[in-house]
Design goal:
The chain is an all-alpha fold. It has helices at 2-22, 24-43, 45-61, 70-78, 80-104, 107-110, 116-125, 132-141, 146-152, 157-184, 187-209. α3 (45-61) packs across α5 (80-104). The protein is globular and about 50 Å long.
Length: 218
């Protein structure tokens, strides 16, 4: 179920972060990676920015793929504000492409990304007449691939983009500043941001789980 996957991801993230803080060899490896990418970014900064944004877009399109490991590297290379804009822009591009695929291609393409059972459950949950607030909660609680379902039901694009922007923004900010906290060794900031992200996700999941989401993502 989705909440179990979220707990697992949070647990792994915390474990890796603690290992990073207390392992000098892991820190050395990380900064060697940063140094390696920095060499190429200096040669072609525009390409480096573009590649990072494209990985963010791909993460929004394909559930198993994630660009989370690249975010601390990007923060170290580009800084917090540029990385925030790149990550948000990439996610929104991926979300938009997912919507367009769902709207104009539908099942033939979506079935390669999402299981039919899960996708049908999402389709039974949303409709063009569902309130904007509930759609926003669903967008917060469910994976980015939900964009395919929004496109399939032909939900108005401008509403979809608006609620997606506001749903993605807090996760972008938490991810960026949690990455910064990891690099600076700011334990209080890191765990505070992880707690905030957990409250946002599980709060939204709880609100939409009752009574209409029974059977989704099982």
């Amino acid at each position: 179920m989705m909440y179990k996957q979220a707990l697992l991801i949070i647990g792994v993230l915390v474990a890796i972060t603690l290992l990073f803080w207390y392992s000098l060899s892991l820190q050395e490896t990380f900064y060697n990676i940063v140094s390696f990418f920095e060499t190429y970014v200096r040669q072609n900064e525009a390409l480096g920015l573009l590649v990072f944004m494209l990985t963010a877009a791909l993460a929004a399109l394909v559930g198993p793929f994630t660009n989370l490991p690249l975010i601390p590297v990007a923060v170290a290379l580009f800084g917090t504000v540029p990385t925030t804009l790149l990550l948000l822009g990439g996610w929104l591009i991926g979300d938009t492409i997912a919507y367009l695929i769902g709207r104009y291609i539908g099942y033939p393409a979506v079935r390669y990304v999402i299981s039919a059972k899960r996708f049908d459950a999402w389709l039974s949950t949303i409709s063009p007449h569902t309130s904007f607030f509930k759609m926003f909660l669903l967008r917060l609680a469910l994976p980015a691939e939900l964009g395919y379902a929004f496109g399939t039901i032909r939900y108005p694009f401008w509403k979809y983009f608006l609620l997606t922007f506001f749903a993605e923004l807090p996760f972008v900010l938490v991810t960026i500043y949690a990455s910064e906290a990891i690099l600076l060794g700011e334990r209080l900031q890191f765990f505070g941001l992880i707690a905030l992200m957990s409250v946002i996700f599980f709060g939204a999941f709880y609100l939409v789980r009752k009574p209409t989401l029974h059977g989704v993502d099982k």
